[in-house]
Amino acid sequence: MRENNALLIMEIIMKLGPISRSELTQLVGLTQVSVINITNELLEAGILEQVGMTNGSAQGRKAIVLDVNPKRFYSLCLVLRVEEMVCGISDLRGNILDTIRIEYPARLSSGELLDEVERMIEELLCRSEISREKILGLGIAAPGPLDVQTGTIVNPPNFPYLQNLPIKEKLEKRLGFPVCLDKETNLAALAEYYYGMAKNYKTSFFVSIFNLGIGGGLISGGEIFHGFRDGAGEIGHVMVDSAGPKCRCGNYGCLETMISEDYVISEVKKMLKLGVGDIVVNGIDTITLEDVFAKSHLPGMNVFHTAVDKMVSYLSQALGIIINLYSPELIMIGGVIPDMDPMFVDLVAEKVHKRSYPSHCKDVVIRKSEFGKDVFLMGAAALVQKKFLVNVLPQSL
Which of 170, 155, 178 is nearest to 115 (CA)? Predict the structure, then answer.
C-alpha cells in the first residue's frame, strides 16, 4: 500500500511539480502524516529534492516545495520508424539529454536491429558518462501490431523482417536493463499526460499524422487504453470514404490512405493535368505536400485548397467518431503533417466543433502537440518511469 502511495505521489509531482506537501495531500487523498513520511523517505533516497519554500497557510507559515530530482535516475528510450531509428537518454523530467539517429535500412534483419540498438545505447552511456546503476530501463516506441504484455513486435506491415520479434526478452538479455514497449502513438499520449498539455485532463487522445501512416492513443485516468489485443487507437484505419483506394491493411478508404502524402499529391497532379480550374503551374511532377499546403492559402489555387479541405474533412470525420466512442476532453494532433501548415489543426478543430452531435463536441479541446518528434522519445521515457520507478523506491516503502 505504501509503495502504491509513493508511486502516486511521484506521478503527481512529475506532472505538477514543484509542489508543496499541503497541495499534495489534497490531490492524493492521503493523510498529511502519510504524505510527510513518504516524501521524507523519497527525499532521503534522493528521488525528490527540496526546491524552495512558500507561504503554506493564512498564518504565514513557510511550506517546503518539492520536485523530482531529475539527475537521480535516467531512462533510455528508442523509437522505431520506417525511415530511421532514434535512441535517446532522458532525465526524470522527460528532458531528452542526447540522441543518436541512424537511417533504417529496408532489409535490416532482427539480429542486425538488436546489434544496432545495443551499439547506440553503449555509445549514449559513454557520451553521457551516466553510470548503468542510474538507468531505470529502456522504453521502446514501436509500430503496431504489438503484444505489449510479452514485449513482442508482431507483424508491422512496414517492417517485414521483424515479425514476431520478442524484442523485450532479447534486449533485456543483451543489456541487463528491464525493457518495456508500446505503440508510438500511445506513448506520445503518455508523454503529453506526464510532461505536456494533457496533465490536467482525465481523458485525452493523441493523433500522429505522418507522410505515411496515422496512429492514435487514448489516455484515461492516467493509463493507456489498449483494448483487446492492444488494438485500440487505430484511427488511421477508420473508413472515411467507402469509394476510396485500397489501404495497405486490405480495406478501402481508410483515413491513413485518404490523407497520405502519395494519395493527396497524386490527386492534385491529376486535377492539374486535366486542366481543372484556371490554375497554371510549372513543374507539376515536382509538387510536394509542402507545396500543396503553401499554395492552398493563395488566391485562385482552387485545386490545392480543395485538396487540403478534403484532408481536413476526412480527419475531422474520424475525430468525430473518436469523440462519439471515447468522449476525450482533449485531442492533440502531432506528427509531420501538422508542422507543414500552422492553420491545419485550427481548421480541423473548427470543423469538429461544428458537429451537432454530441452536444459537448464544441467543448472538446483540440490542440497541436508542442513536443515535435521528441514526443515519442519522451513517451518511451515516461513508460520506463511508470513501469520501473518502483524498482528503485526505498525498501522501507
Answer: 170
